[in-house]
Amino acid sequence: MKDMRYFVKKSILCTLATITLISLTKCLHSYFPIPFCPSFLSTSLLLLLTVRLYYLFKSTIFKHSTTLPPGPFSIPIFGNWLQVGNDLNHRLLATMSQKYGPIFLLKLGSKNLVVVSDPEIANQVLHTQGVEFGSRPRNVVFDIFTGNGQDMVFTIYGDHWRKMRRIMTLPFFTNKVVHHYSDMWEEEMDLVVGDLRTNESARINGNGIVIRKRLQLMLYNIMYRMMFDAKFQSQEDPLFIEATKFNSERSRLAQSFEYNYGDFIPLLRPFLKGYLNKCRDLQSRRLAFFNNNYVQKRREIIASNGENHNISCAIDHIIDAEMKGEISEENVIYIVENINVAAIETTLWSMEWAIAELVNHPTVQNKIREEISTVLNDQPVTESNLHELPYLQATVKETLRLHSPIPLLVPHMNLKEEKLGGYTIPKESKVVVNAWWLANNPSWWKNPEEFRPERFLEEECGTDAVAGGKADFRYLPFGVGRRSCPGIVLALPILGLVIAKLVSNFEMKAPLGMEKVDVSEKGGQFSLHIATHSTVVFDQITA
Ligand code: HEM
């Protein structure tokens, strides 16, 4: 109503001003025969009035429907980029949300970044408007690493994504897969325990070891055995060295802030040529590595078995889908690329965080041991009895709450202009949900900076790590909804089992002379990992 009154008032003023101008012109023309046509002038002024009224009408009556989310004042070409810088990490964005609100907009050159820091609006992005915000933004570097969206993780929401997700689900993301492979996972974990037992430097009198390296081999073996029925012999295995080098270089190039200028400001893109060539060169050598050493070998095995080939690993299923014409040869290789990126590093980072926090909280280690001993009567922990160990599960949850490996989730994007939280979101905006802040905001969590698994058995006992169904939108380590992490079914039991096995066999401690290990963090475009890989002493527990 107020808007309507404002509009009518402005319209009357505009009309009066125009009529006055037209009369004045006519009057002047009768006194001074100046060489212009008054009727032409009147028409022009009327036209101007109409245009003015149109915009006035649009900006008052539809004012709310075109309101962009709040955000800092932006300047042409650069937007807010020069003010906010490159490293828009979860902590900086959390601080900005306190100033600009639960949904705010940053202009990064030609691109819009919408930041969501409120559980209700997160629910809208991921669930109620999950289709509208279900795409992924493109960028110059990811276009190279995903073959312009031929993969699943970074492709837009649509038929291609649906098909890829369906094809990947059967061999990777079901409970049947978990039951089928859990013995193999345990076998790989027991090898780690065995190695730690015999490793002199890992013991109390030694200086401890950087545990990441051994866990990395374990996780590669878990995922490569599931994918290709293949494993690496040791950390010195040349194929292992090559695979880890390719993947870490890919992560470094994709996660770096170095290429932002060319991504944000298209005019500057020619200066990125060298960087993009480096990405292209790495990607072609990396995909050839996966293809020549693994995919091609499975193709040969399938071909030699003829019509009735047995499907014995995930990639056989994927090749089968290709043979049925459902996906292309390129899609097959991009599935391998996605698993290398999405599955291994995220789970490895979570393990490193969990171990570091356990080293710094020996009481939590004791409680896990006590739980295993009382609930399972010292029987070994297996995938099938993990559900009987709530304290262990709470430890996994607390690790993922305090140190989400993907604190802003993988960015979402709306293909068309949409409404969100009462604001208009321009089409193709990058929309990030600050999942870390949702899980660490003191307004919603008691002493969120504390590592305290007990919270998930006490005041937060109803909060679970889920990727669908009834979600608590303050706790989203795997996202929720259509683009949520399908790997949750593997990641949670793998994390639970590793922690259980390490804690049952060892007291994990900081190296001699140190109280605690450093848990400061380091992030990239959307990853968060421990800044210094922990050196840990594994003091064997004797029965
Ligand atoms: C602790 C370990 C892990 C964490 C914290 C994690 C977290 C996430 C997150 C936050 C997303 C994005 C959700 C969104 O955009 O809304 C995601 C996507 C994804 N994750 Fe995970 N993940 C983990 C392990 C895994 C594993 C083990 C696999 C596979 C074996 C996997 C496969 C994927 C895939 C394929 C996607 C893309 C889904 C899509 O775009 O449709 N993740 N993950």
Automatic annotation (TrEMBL):
Its catalytic activity? Answer: (E)-cinnamate + reduced [NADPH--hemoprotein reductase] + O2 = (E)-4-coumarate + oxidized [NADPH--hemoprotein reductase] + H2O + H(+)
Gene Ontology molecular function, alphabetical: heme binding; iron ion binding; trans-cinnamate 4-monooxygenase activity
Instruction: Tell me how this protein sits in the membrane.
Output: Single-pass membrane protein
Q: Which GO terms describe its biological process?
A: lignin metabolic process
Q: Which GO terms describe its cellular component?
A: membrane
Residues folding into a coiled coil are: none
Q: Which keywords does this Swiss-Prot/TrEMBL entry list?
A: Heme, Iron, Membrane, Metal-binding, Monooxygenase, Oxidoreductase, Transmembrane, Transmembrane helix
Q: Which domain of life is it from?
A: Eukaryota
Main subcellular location of this protein, as a coarse class: membrane
One Pfam family from the record:
p450
Cofactor names from the entry are: heme
Q: In which pathway does this enzyme or protein participate?
A: Phenylpropanoid metabolism; trans-4-coumarate biosynthesis; trans-4-coumarate from trans-cinnamate: step 1/1
Subcellular location per UniProt equals:
Membrane
Question: Which Enzyme Commission number(s) are listed?
Answer: 1.14.14.91
Q: Where does heme bind?
A: 485
Q: Which InterPro entries match?
A: Cyt_P450, Cyt_P450_CS, Cyt_P450_E_grp-I, Cyt_P450_sf
What family does the entry list?
A: Belongs to the cytochrome P450 family.
User: What is known about what this protein does?
Assistant: Catalyzes the first oxidative step of the phenylpropanoid pathway in higher plants by transforming trans-cinnamate into p-coumarate. The compounds formed by this pathway are essential components for lignification, pollination, and defense against ultraviolet light, predators and pathogens.
The name of this protein is Trans-cinnamate 4-monooxygenase
Which species does this protein come from?
Answer: Quillaja saponaria
